[in-house]
């Protein structure tokens, strides 16, 4: 089994350190060394570093299982989930960790994705707008086609990790750009037969340069998405829908 | 002093907390939710398998109803649960599932006609009814008579949490993120809110509310290896305990899940076995039928976990650098099934083990998973000792799980409990006034401040990380799946030593704002107290019930132990909790204690059991012959839920009955 095969080599971690609340603190890279253990992930390594070498090191993890989306960071140049990144994927044993760009920095590797996602949800109204409010919970539920349910679930698997936002050149250049996460979520509601919003409603929110027409199709979102969500396909789908609605 | 006041204060933004917040806001109450992390990152997201609700849509669920769900839950609890609560729960579960569908959950739906499933390692074809097409589907789970667990592939918790959080956002409910509650503000009779610390700026605030609802999840992280998210540290329970007034219930009831991956302890859902996956030993032998010929892999969780441990003790485990493990085999389900219905499992196997579960077996072993114990509440979710303190979800001992929880009943409890208790919380807020005693708030703020001063400026020498590791090891080694007096006593005395040492913690990083070491120090002191309630409760309970298995007392002893353990913390200098016991009244039970259906029936009977059985026979014989199941149930053990939830649940079988077609559908079921 792969996880047991790693030999105890010495790993070098280059970690971005900066505490924006500490007066006079300047961003820097600090180097740490640690002995690799079998099955070691970046989650395990960072916790060991904090326990044994520097108790002030800031980073975020919650589920440590690739489910919650808390721990996205830039590892050797690519944004990804740190919890499920095995250290043995780096043959040279050198690992550089940077915080996700595009989000408010809390400190070191910790960024405020939660605040970003909540504001995005409020801006784009990312919740189900039901056809009718009087659905009765005591009666038999309204049937839905099994295919539709499966499709919705496929689009709903986003964990709001922020990787797509950090990997998007448009977003880095234009603060107001919605980014793949927002469009993916809108596409999910557009598809939902229970949602009362029309294509025109969506057009008002993302039918502009900050939305589907601002995307430069550089594929950073889709290439790096840890859940392999079909971002480009959904952006193209929304774009087509809106273009057609305007004809 | 920064003081924030509201009507309904909720601590914890997982499914249970958010559902209570929604219920408060629906009533027009001012509502504030506190959370360590963004709401959508809560541990609720990790629930893969699904939630139980007796919809009875699928052919394998035909004939299911509240009665069967109730019986499964009571048996699953090993008669340790509150039967009134189990009734309230079973009655409201279908409503919660349907409500969630209205809020956007894309529940997996039924496709009419034949489909192939794996039952007992064999491929079987079942045929779903035409009328069921498009209704909510259900899968099989351990300890349930019917296929009752509603799901969205294996991302049910994720789907539910996102829908419920979206609903909360749409209602403009504020969630104060990255805020940690550190003390309850109370006057010995009434709870008035919490003192909390902002994890980013270090600011200390008082949050005052008419009601304070603790929904902070379980305490799995007092164990070394746990399936729980790293935020499930039992701080909510610790806050209640530290009041010295509020009591915790059944803290020794800790469940181990049979199939977490080795070594990291990440869960693979029970859906793996529900969908037909098998457990195998080092010889590839499927051993569960040898121990549990009837239920096999789908015996209840505590039973499967113990059988696995027994089998490994016989030398049948697979050796690994992390100790022995067994195999979970889902290869027989086929690639398509694994890649659609068990996709999270597939991702976990790929990312953490580097294996393809459609081709290879998964290394698993039982791992700490769920805490049935928690803040003791009455049926309305309120703590009997501190008025205005409510608790819900895994944080609470509302007590529908007793000494063992069935798979699919935890996710269900979060939303069903939240739905019911949320209404009682709202009632409480409407019936009571806000009491703001700034002097009292100041007192508790000062206490938290001086605790932080001592840590930051003090001369302590102990490391919070070292103490924490010690605690986790003690719990794992001595308070695990099988327990005995000698080891439990050792656990208690070692934890007491740690508690003393924890009073001498010193920090290397002295920041007062974002400082992970300070956070760890504040938590570990509290966690050890929680660990002590578990170890002490387990040491005294000289019987085996559900997940609490004593090697030296293998019988379930209804005669002496048909009760709930209550723990309180006598004073700040104490080294152990004060234990007391709350009796369960057999004469009020709808289902008197009986055989659970696993292994040998070795329970020592309660003297009232026979009496109650006769009484129930008598009650039923006096009823009108035409009496339906609801009337019978009401005659034996009437229960109440808030008026808005009292209505009966409609089922497909009712519809089919009306059209005279139920016989035909039942025919398919056979």
UniProtKB/TrEMBL annotation, chain A:
Cofactor names: [2Fe-2S] cluster; [3Fe-4S] cluster; [4Fe-4S] cluster
Record-stated family: Belongs to the succinate dehydrogenase/fumarate reductase iron-sulfur protein family.
GO molecular function per UniProt: 2 iron, 2 sulfur cluster binding; 3 iron, 4 sulfur cluster binding; 4 iron, 4 sulfur cluster binding; electron transfer activity; metal ion binding; succinate dehydrogenase (quinone) activity
Taxonomic lineage: Bacteria, Pseudomonadati, Pseudomonadota, Gammaproteobacteria, Alteromonadales
One of the Pfam families matching this protein, by short name: Fer2_3
EC number, UniProt record: 1.3.5.1
Domain 2Fe-2S ferredoxin-type: 25-101
Organism of derivation: Shewanella psychrophila
Parts of the chain that traverse the membrane: none
UniProt entry tagged with the keyword Metal-binding: yes
Broad class of enzyme this protein falls into: oxidoreductase
tRNA-binding is among the record's keywords: no
Positions of the 4Fe-4S ferredoxin-type domain: 148-178
Any single biological process term in GO: respiratory electron transport chain
NCBIfam families in the record: dhsB (TIGR00384), PRK13552.1 (NF010071)
Swiss-Prot/TrEMBL keywords: 2Fe-2S, 3Fe-4S, 4Fe-4S, Iron, Iron-sulfur, Metal-binding, Oxidoreductase, Ubiquinone
Swiss-Prot/TrEMBL catalytic activity: a menaquinone + succinate = a menaquinol + fumarate
Subunit structure, interactors included: Part of an enzyme complex containing three subunits: a flavoprotein (frdA), an iron-sulfur protein (frdB), and diheme cytochrome b (frdC).
Protein name: Fumarate reductase iron-sulfur subunit
Annotated cofactor note: Binds 1 [2Fe-2S] cluster. Binds 1 [3Fe-4S] cluster.
TrEMBL record, chain B:
Reactions performed catalytically: a quinone + succinate = fumarate + a quinol
Domain FAD-dependent oxidoreductase 2 FAD-binding stretches: 7-411
Entry membrane topology: Peripheral membrane protein
GO cellular component, one term: plasma membrane
Localisation: Cell inner membrane
Chief location bin: membrane
Taxonomic superkingdom: Bacteria
Family annotation (Pfam families): FAD_binding_2, Succ_DH_flav_C
Limits of the Fumarate reductase/succinate dehydrogenase flavoprotein-like C-terminal domain: 468-598
UniProt-annotated catalytic positions: 301
E.C. no: 1.3.5.1
GO MF, one annotated term: flavin adenine dinucleotide binding
SUPFAM superfamilies (alphabetical): FAD/NAD(P)-binding domain (SSF51905), Succinate dehydrogenase/fumarate reductase flavoprotein C-terminal domain (SSF46977), Succinate dehydrogenase/fumarate reductase flavoprotein, catalytic domain (SSF56425)
PROSITE patterns: FRD_SDH_FAD_BINDING
UniProt KW Kinase keyword: no
GO biological process: anaerobic respiration; electron transport chain
Family statement drawn from the similarity comment of this UniProt entry: Belongs to the FAD-dependent oxidoreductase 2 family. FRD/SDH subfamily.
Subunit organization: Part of an enzyme complex containing three subunits: a flavoprotein (frdA), an iron-sulfur protein (frdB), and diheme cytochrome b (frdC).
Protein name as catalogued: Fumarate reductase flavoprotein subunit
